[in-house]
Amino acid sequence: MYKITDRCVKCGACDSECPNGAIVEKEKQFDIDYYKCVECGNCYDVCPNSAIDEA
What we know:
alpha+beta
């Protein structure tokens, strides 16, 4: 399971790489819809700010 942390600056890199559309834009950062997430790790791999942690 992956979690987007407060290091997220809403750059959108993760959103464009998610094959299931599990990245959801919130007011201050992106979040992950855990019902759609298949734990592929694409978001983790492309985040330039290391804002995604393995939970």
